[in-house]
Design brief:
CATH class of the domain at 3-246: Alpha Beta
CATH superfamily of the domain at 3-246: Acetylglutamate kinase-like
Largest sheet: 8 strands, mixed
Strand order of the largest sheet: 3-6-2-1-9-11-12-10
Structural class: alpha/beta
CATH architecture of the domain at 3-246: 3-Layer(aba) Sandwich
Radius of gyration: 23 Å
Number of helices: 13
Shape: globular
């Protein structure tokens, strides 16, 4: 008997009927002879609605109380799902994150998992139960408070439990049939990927792909957890996220490559395209081009608790000895970083700040970039033909990212998707979810 961890997102448990359908799916896995641990998110848009409610009460909710409020959504889901399973004749027990042994640091809203002690989960499994765990939350031994893991925290909970329990696989159930070459809500002709490397998935998640959270992919890669992304609304096979080295990837591509009519070998170069509208851009104008100024700026940014994504520094003007530094960061961190930089303006010595939250990020990802020329040329040509202006560029070994205007992001994504031959034969199906 193997152990399988299954995670169901908010759209999969959005209402009573959905919860009953998920319960049947879990029971089918149990009938197949597996022990099952289930991680659930809050129902539908519950987390967003609770956050909205808190901000109606106060513009700046206390972080501890905000976490206490948000974790109630997952507790509702776990209890209802356990009831639904029991009503169908199978034993189930629900557990909060702290009861399941999810130990975190004390940072509210974005806690990191420091340990997993799933003793109660193992006891429940030995008693013949299906264990249902509230995702997104944990407990800090340091502060003795409930914490939340931030966006995508339920994915991370599931992967952490799969690693701690040595599960055969961690199944992530969502409202699409797997991982697609792009978000079907943005690019309707996106095509489902049968399997993808954890390295490629990590780049896609970092670039804004919402199907898997970057922390969950990173955790799975580090602990050797196999991820299987599937739909809770269909029996489609889904997408496997596999852990393999560059050498293993090359060997697999050699096996899977096809030969065209002219005898040349065709291999998949691009795995997918990610889009992201959640970032803003800050430009620090008139920075003295002397040693240590960039360090001073980003020390202030780090002190404000913000994560920086892309960074561009202009060549300094010879006449003035001044330069501009632009960087992107989550919109949620924008105003506090502006405030922190403004407070340190006399020390750093820059002239002014510009804030722009109407940007979009587009990223092209594929392990085949390592061995294929012309990818950048094709990428930028497709954007040019579509009339897209590029504001920032960033690259890694298997990724090219650009920043453009938010209102042109969908056009850009569709143009690049078509240019690289990623379009499917029919529109992808999105079964549920608002994308909020």
């Amino acid at each position: 008997m193997s152990l399988i961890v299954q995670k169901f997102g908010g759209s999969s448990v959005a209402d009573a009927e959905s919860i009953k359908r998920v319960a049947k799916r879990i029971i089918e896995t149990r009938k197949a002879g597996h022990d099952v641990v289930v991680v659930v998110s809050a129902m539908g848009d519950t987390t967003d609605e609770l956050a909205d409610l808190a901000h109606q009460v106060t513009p700046m909710p206390d972080p501890r109380e905000f976490d206490m409020l948000l974790t109630s959504g997952e507790r509702i889901s776990m209890a209802l799902l356990a009831m639904a399973i029991r009503s169908q004749g199978y034993s189930a027990q629900s557990f909060t994150g702290s009861q399941a042994g999810m130990i975190t640091d004390s940072r509210h809203g974005a806690a990191r998992i420091v340990d997993v002690t799933p003793g109660r989960i193992l006891d429940s499994l030995r008693e013949g139960n299906i264990a249902i765990v509230a995702g997104f939350q944990g407990f800090s031994r340091e502060s003795r408070d409930i914490t939340t893991l931030g966006r995508g925290g339920s994915d991370t909970t599931a992967v952490a439990l799969a690693a701690a329990l040595d599960a055969a696989v961690c199944e992530i159930y969502t409202d699409v049939d797997g991982i697609f070459t792009s978000d079907p809500r943005v690019v309707p002709m996106a095509r489902k990927i049968d399997r993808i490397t954890s390295e490629e998935m990590l780049e896609l998640a970092a670039a804004g792909a919402k199907v898997l959270h970057i922390r969950a992919v990173e955790y799975a890669r580090r602990h050797g957890v196999t991820l299987h992304v599937r739909s809770s609304f269909s029996n489609a096979e889904g997408t496997l996220v596999i852990n393999e080295t560059a050498e293993q990837y090359a060997a697999r591509i050699a096996r899977e490559s096809t030969t065209s009519e002219d005898g040349t070998v065709e291999e998949p170069i691009i795995s997918g395209i990610a889009t992201d509208l959640s970032e803003a851009k800050i430009t620090v104008v008139g920075v003295p081009d002397v040693r240590g100024k960039a360090a001073a700026i980003f020390n202030v940014v780090a002190g404000a608790g913000a994560n920086v994504d892309m960074i561009v520094q202009n060549v300094s003007a010879a006449a003035t000895g001044l330069t501009d530094i632009s960087f992107t960061l989550p919109k949620a961190d924008g105003q506090k970083v502006i405030a922190a930089l403004t407070a340190d303006q006399p020390v750093i010595g820059f002239q002014s700040l510009q804030y722009d939250d109407q940007i979009g990020k587009l990223a092209l990802v594929g392990a085949g970039m390592r061995t294929n020329t012309g990818v950048s040329a094709n990428f930028f040509e497709a954007l040019s033909i579509a009339g897209i202006n590029i504001e920032m560029i960033s690259t890694s070994e298997i990724r090219i990212s650009v920043v453009t205007r938010a209102d042109s992001l969908q056009t850009a994504a569709q143009a690049v998707h078509t240019a690289f031959g990623l379009d499917g034969d029919a529109e992808a199906v999105v079964y549920a979810g608002t994308g909020r």
